[in-house]
């Protein structure tokens, strides 16, 4: 065990959990109507709790167990069987590696929340998210990070997929799942209501930015120069994408908005995620500059061309960003084109099929969408019996 590595990953684990609680909750919560903000908080918090338990029960073993095959890790480490305080994973206590990866398993299904807010049933959120993490996310983790079929020497050749911190594993899977759920759900009854609290959005985005240092820097799994470089390029990409989004917005619409600026931040962070362990600061600058414009145009395509109500633009920002960053690894000559594109296609098809099947199966057990009256009145009071803002008190 290395003490410095262990100390850094303990910090990184806290930072990644901070991304979901409270970062993502505030970012998403500020974007919805005031009558739905508590439901967004509820979704993010409940998903964090449920994924933590399911990661212990089976998720970690499926992703990182060594008793399965190239497709999954088996159930040998279910409930952390055989893992104690002295067990090691590289230079880290294995229980710490478990906890660090658990925070990734929390935020990935939580990202999908943005696609279905304001119209989805709470029961569906929990059942779908739990099954999706176990049957979609965890196997993909094994394929790319757990020694599975997409690693070096796997089905894509000697050079496997390069995905440092989750461009495919986190952002492509969550983005595609979000797009499919939004398509199946259908649009909200009212798609024109503006964000109720842009201040929340900015605060949440700022928390995500800080937390992303643990997300990308922690993925080095060591306290060394590689972690420092990953942290630095993450920051450069986020800063550049924020400005390129705002500038593009100013050129197109005459005004640059706060919500646009900080959405650009998230686009830059998602895009640098897969490449953060491989690129230098200048390459990060290029990735961020393109990401701010590319993801903004993707928002327009999803909304106006595909006419899909992906409420908070999960696919356009996270999905497109993660896919773009994954491809840029090959563009810069830091990975194999066959592996990068092949990994995107294989995981994309798998995610799409599993997500669609799970939606249909879970909808047989618990309603997918709330009724029209509940949607109109808002989920906070109708589903959870609370209001975010009581002006009479």
Could you characterize the architecture of this molecule?
The structure is a single chain. The chain has about 400 residues and is mainly α. It has one domain: Orthogonal Bundle (Ammonium transporter fold), CATH 1.10.3430. It has a two-stranded antiparallel ribbon. The termini are far apart. About 55% of the residues are buried. It comes from Ruegeria arenilitoris.
Brief digest:
With 393 residues, the chain is mostly helical.
Find the count of extended strands (DSSP E, 2+ residues): 2
Strand fraction band? under 5%
Give the topology string: H per helix, E per strand.
HHEEHHHHHHHHHHH
Shape: globular
Radius of gyration, whole Å:
20 Å
CATH superfamily annotation = Ammonium transporter AmtB like domains
CATH architectural grouping = Orthogonal Bundle
Helices and strands: which structural class?
mainly alpha
Strand and helix map with partners:
Blueprint: H1 3-31, H2 37-64, E1 88-89, E2 92-93, H3 94-116, H4 122-145, H5 167-185, H6 198-217, H7 225-253, H8 258-272, H9 281-305, H10 314-331, H11 337-363, H12 372-377, H13 379-384
Antiparallel strand pairs: 1-2
Helix pairs in contact: 1-2, 1-3, 1-6, 2-3, 2-4, 3-4, 3-5, 4-11, 5-10, 5-11, 6-7, 6-8, 7-8, 7-9, 8-9, 8-10, 9-10, 10-11
